[in-house]
Task: structure prediction
Amino acid sequence: MPNPSPQRGDIDWINVPRHHTVGSEQYKSRPWLIVTTNAIGYLNLAIGVPLSMQAQKQNRQFRIAITQPNIILDPGSTLMPGERVALTEQVRVLSVERLEFPRAGRVTNAALYAVEAGLAFVLEMP
Result:
């Protein structure tokens, strides 16, 4: 069942099949951080950044480490506790139909701001 209204800062499980990707694009079921403003929720689209547990992936200034205190898991979440790395260079538009319900958790505002800085770098935005 899809999550009907993903919110900015949510961590949702999203399954992107391998045949929907090319090259190094992220695929399979994994947690994604929703970075879309809530104001466009009526479009049934969300913009997300995939999260990785592989700490070695944070060796670039646009791959943002999110430490465990900045990840708030929902009760019953299937997301394993631990540090994540936001792969901001893999930002993607996602249909809300891809989002699995219930959500896995949320990130703090501090973590969201750090991911925004990574996105600003990747997109060359001030």
Q: What stands out?
A: The chain has one helix and eight strands. The longest helix spans residues 109-122. The two ends are 38 Å apart (CA to CA).
